[in-house]
Design goal:
alpha+beta; four-stranded antiparallel beta sheet; globular
């Protein structure tokens, strides 16, 4: 440790401007709301603390005799160190799972560096057993185990935090983190992929010679969950939005008079509402014009229960950068000014707020030429109003404002770096 400390000290003296630049980069990036939205490094921290809470008490028992006591103490220290190393390896695995979401997060990078130092200090092998997860509280095994909200409240004494995602129109995606994107994706893409739920959307071209697409199929798989529900499948296709699961049932997983899964409809063939009480999740599938749409409301703990291999989820990270389109620029090549103006007038009458839903309406109407396509944005907004409790996040600004925000950050970062380099 001494040579390493000496090298660090030398570097700090010789190149202090490097540390200033690194700190500036982190502080500027942390000012972006997108960084804080998905990084859950505090979960890794709390899991590590929980895994090491009992290690300090394992060496408190006494031994018989001097030699016996010394031997017992040595074994106790060795066992404690092995347990500590297991907890550190689990901590490291958790941070690796968070790597993508926590890019630029200062707390995350501090944790990663701290783990590295502790692994060296305690001479922990890189490979080896990891700490076993702490058992679930007994409240989750009670009569309310298959009623997520009740079970959560009995443990935490508060209601869970809910997230919202919607996919509709050409398609447009509103992510759990309140990002809004228009995607050029074709074929089948996962919207949600975690331990409890898998949702896949299939989009198909709508007009030849353009990138315009629309959702034509939605597949939802509720995964097997212990005593609550067996695996269940729901599928909707264009012109066929059933109010039943694939096996024809309208409910599944009965326990003490409650159903874990239920399906109902307000408009047969055009609408389905699925409630998954065991994971506190509500899903609404609709057909609007010639496209399908999906809205999801689910607890954060459910939607964030996924591993590093489940790294493609449109509701979590949005569509890949190469597949993103500018919502403010419809794909139709040079639409006639009267038609573009009539599209704006039509959407403004239905959606007076010039938010993402208004711009999605104009985008879809110009690209499709179908007045019914405007219903996709209207229905998505209605679902959002019923699923989002914070009205301040309901009407998101169009994508251009987000681009301007990041451009402002980039300019600020450039000016700071230039200022540092001139000193």
């Amino acid at each position: 440790m001494e040579p390493r400390a000496a090298i660090t000290k030398l570097n700090n003296r010789a190149l202090p401007w490097k540390h200033c630049i690194h700190l500036t980069l982190l502080l500027v990036h942390l000012s972006s709301p997108g960084v804080k939205a998905t990084c859950r490094i505090l979960r890794c921290n709390s899991d590590f603390v929980a895994a090491t809470l009992d290690l300090g008490s394992s060496g408190s028992s006494g031994g018989g005799g001097a030699e016996g006591g010394a031997s017992t103490a040595a074994l106790s220290r060795e066992a404690m160190n092995a347990g500590y190393c297991s907890a550190l390896r689990s901590y490291a695995m958790c941070t690796r799972r968070m790597a993508r979401a926590c890019r630029g997060d200062l707390a995350y990078h501090s944790a990663v560096q701290g783990i590295e130092d502790l692994l060296i200090q305690h001479r922990c092998p890189r490979a080896g057993p990891t700490a076993q997860p702490r058992p679930l509280p007994q409240g989750t095994l009670s009569g309310d185990a298959c009623l997520y909200e009740r079970s959560f409240f009995s443990r935490e004494r508060r209601m869970p935090e809910y997230l919202h995602c919607s996919v509709f129109g050409d398609p447009h995606v509103r992510t759990f983190n309140h990002d809004f994107q228009t995607c050029a994706v074709q074929g089948a893409w996962p919207l949600v992929d975690n331990e409890y739920l898998y949702i896949q959307a299939t989009s198909s071209p709508t007009r030849e010679g353009t990138q315009a697409t629309a959702l034509t199929k939605i597949t939802i798989i509720f995964k097997n969950m212990r005593q609550c529900v067996d695996q269940q499948l729901y599928q909707a296709e264009l012109d066929n939005v059933p109010a039943a699961f694939a096996d024809g049932s309208v409910w599944s997983g009965e326990r003490r008079g409650h159903h874990s899964l239920t399906v109902r409809t307000q408009s047969p063939g055009q609408h389905a509402e699925i409630r998954a009480a065991h994971i506190g999740t509500l899903l609404v599938v609709r057909q609007s014009g010639r496209s399908l749409g999906l809205s999801v409301r689910s607890p954060r703990g459910i939607m964030e229960a996924f591993g590093p291999e489940q790294d493609l989820q449109l509701c979590v990270w949005g569509c890949p950068p190469s597949q993103r389109l500018n919502t403010l620029r419809p794909l139709s090549p040079d639409p006639p000014p009267p038609f573009a103006l009539s599209a704006q007038t039509h959407c403004a009458a239905l959606l007076p707020d010039r938010d993402i839903y208004y711009h999605a309406c104009v985008f879809d109407l110009i690209n499709s030429g179908d007045l019914n396509s405007s219903m996709a944005a209207i229905n998505a907004l209605q679902d959002a109003m019923s699923m989002i409790s914070d009205v301040q996040t309901l009407h998101l600004l169009p994508v251009a404002s987000s681009l301007q925000h990041h451009a402002h950050l980039d300019l600020l970062l450039l000016l700071l770096l230039l200022g540092l380099s001139l000193r």
